[in-house]
Structure formats: structure tokens, C-alpha cells
């Protein structure tokens, strides 16, 4: 009879541990997935901002006799522009290239309507994402204009403002959902641990009544919490890596970004899994250590 009771208790303990591990793994999987979405949304936002270029123009006046001198001067100017703080990337567009681009945009194949070198050479500048901001774009343009040789700087400010506002709005929603998932992760993991500790409340109180110190009682529960939290975290991360690998293999590698950010995401997921499990275990166990025996029947 005693043997059957022990086997029943062991099965119930295993079932309880499996339930806790699965709960932790599922919750952390969803939390990690939101983290991946947030990381790549930020990267994609920066990528879109970098496509909003600013055009810096050289002097329209051009004399073929001075072509070598002008080319050298424009090359030196390009190098100066590339070193400016707001500049992410700068691409030189010659007069010939500007004429070809104008023909394409106007749908003209003939050279009859174009005089030679009618369009000035320019520099197409992709700004750093932090400068694609209504509050900083004027500052960036002023810095570019200050470079000797640049006579005019043009950009579509209305488009930049619209894109910036829309991207900011989307990122705020994604960040808000990520915080919500973090809170849900804490609540769900905490509830799973509380149910597990609740099933052992009589064991906890019995150990206390026979003279065991609170630290002695807490120690095995904390160790078990660390193990369960780590196992659940690793399972959740393994599932997350598998899903993400399949997704990127189907869509392409354009979503794979800075590995350092992924590293910190893994650390966050592991930390949340272990830390919340341990804290929930300590709080739930301490509650029963402070309670009276009669309270155990009404908890």
C-alpha cells in the first residue's frame, strides 16, 4: 500500500514538473518571438530610413577644359562628405549619369533634346537613421551645405516626416506588445510555480514543525526552481531557434542581423526563465512558512 502511494506521489511530482517546464518553455518561446520581431522591426526601420536620400549638388557651371581639375575637386569634396557625422553612405553621380537618369525618368531615348552636361554632378547621401528625424534633418542638411563645393542640398522633407512618423508609430506598438508579453510571461510562470508549491504546502509546514530552519527548507526548492527554469528556457530557445531558422531559410537571410543583439535576447530569455521561477518559488514557499497550520486548508 505504501509502495503504491509513493509511486503515485512520484508520478504526480513528475507530472507537476513537466507541466511547469512546458509552461515556462511556451511562455518564453512567445516572449523570445516578440523579441525577434522587435529587433528586426528596428533594423528594417533603419533600412527604410537609409533609403530616404538627400541630394547634394555641385556647381552647374562646367567647362570641358577644366574637366580634370573639376573631377579632382569633386572627388575631394565627396571624401569630405563621407566623413560627416550625419552621413551613412555617399554616392557620387556624374553629369553623364545624371543625364542618363533624367532620360529614363522622362522616357526619352534620343540625345537631341539634351545638351551635353546639362545636369550638374551631385552626391546622393543616405543619412544615418538617427538623423532621419524632423528635429534633426535640418541640422544634417546644414552640415552638408557647409562643405566647400556643395551649392545646394535637396530632400523630400514631407516624405521623410511621413515615413518617420509611421515607422515610429509601428515600433511603439511592437514595443508595447513586447512589454505586454513580458508581463504575461511573469504572471504565467508565477502561477505555474505557485500551483506546484501549493501541492507541497503540507510537506513545507511539516518540515518547519519538526524544527527545520527556513533556509534549509527553501534550499531544495530554489535548486529545483533553477533546474526547471533552465530546462524550460532551453526548450523554449530551441523551439525559437528552430522556428526562426525555418523562417529565414524560406524568406531569405535578410532578416539575420547583428548577432550581438540576438545574444542579449538569449540572455534575457534565460534570465527571465530562471529569475522568475526562483523568485516565484521563494515567494510562494515563504507564504506557507509564515502561515498557520489551519490556514493550509483554506489557502
Automatic annotation (TrEMBL):
Gene3D superfamilies: 3.30.70.3040. The keyword Coiled coil does not apply. GO terms for cellular component: plasma membrane. Residues 176-292 form the ABC3 transporter permease C-terminal domain. It is a multi-pass membrane protein. GO terms for biological process: cell division. It is found in: Cell inner membrane; Cell membrane. The chain crosses the membrane at residues 20-39, 170-193, 221-247, 262-289. Keywords: Cell cycle, Cell division, Cell inner membrane, Cell membrane, Membrane, Transmembrane, Transmembrane helix. Residues 54-153 form the FtsX extracellular domain. It comes from the Bacteria. Required for cell division and gliding motility. Belongs to the ABC-4 integral membrane protein family. FtsX subfamily. This is Cell division protein FtsX.
Amino acid at each position: 500500500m505504501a509502495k503504491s502511494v509513493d509511486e503515485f506521489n512520484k508520478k504526480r511530482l513528475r507530472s507537476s514538473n513537466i507541466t511547469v517546464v512546458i509552461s515556462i518553455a511556451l511562455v518564453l518561446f512567445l516572449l523570445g518571438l516578440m523579441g525577434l520581431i522587435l529587433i528586426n522591426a528596428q533594423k528594417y526601420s533603419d533600412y527604410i530610413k537609409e533609403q530616404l536620400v538627400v541630394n547634394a549638388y555641385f556647381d552647374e557651371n562646367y567647362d570641358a577644359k577644366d574637366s580634370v581639375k573639376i573631377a579632382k575637386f569633386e572627388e575631394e569634396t565627396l571624401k569630405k562628405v563621407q566623413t560627416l557625422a550625419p552621413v551613412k553612405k555617399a554616392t557620387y553621380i556624374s553629369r553623364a549619369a545624371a543625364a542618363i537618369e533624367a532620360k529614363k525618368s522622362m522616357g526619352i531615348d534620343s540625345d537631341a533634346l539634351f545638351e551635353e552636361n546639362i545636369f550638374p554632378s551631385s552626391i546622393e547621401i543616405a543619412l544615418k537613421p538617427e538623423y532621419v528625424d524632423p528635429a534633426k534633418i535640418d541640422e544634417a542638411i546644414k552640415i552638408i551645405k557647409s562643405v566647400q563645393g556643395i551649392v545646394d542640398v535637396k530632400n523630400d522633407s514631407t516624405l521623410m516626416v511621413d515615413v518617420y512618423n509611421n515607422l515610429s508609430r509601428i515600433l511603439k506598438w511592437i514595443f508595447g506588445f513586447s512589454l505586454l508579453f513580458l508581463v504575461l510571461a511573469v504572471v504565467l510562470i508565477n502561477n505555474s510555480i505557485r500551483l506546484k508549491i501549493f501541492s507541497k504546502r503540507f510537506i513545507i509546514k511539516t518540515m518547519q514543525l519538526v524544527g527545520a530552519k527556513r533556509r534549509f527548507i527553501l534550499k531544495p526548492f530554489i535548486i529545483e526552481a533553477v533546474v526547471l527554469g533552465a530546462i524550460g528556457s532551453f526548450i523554449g530557445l530551441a523551439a525559437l531557434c528552430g522556428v526562426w531558422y525555418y523562417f529565414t531559410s524560406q524568406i531569405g537571410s535578410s532578416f539575420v542581423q547583428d548577432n550581438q543583439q540576438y545574444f542579449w535576447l538569449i540572455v534575457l530569455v534565460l534570465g527571465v526563465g530562471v529569475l522568475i521561477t526562483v523568485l516565484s518559488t521563494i515567494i510562494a514557499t515563504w507564504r506557507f512558512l509564515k502561515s498557520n497550520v489551519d490556514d493550509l486548508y483554506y489557502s
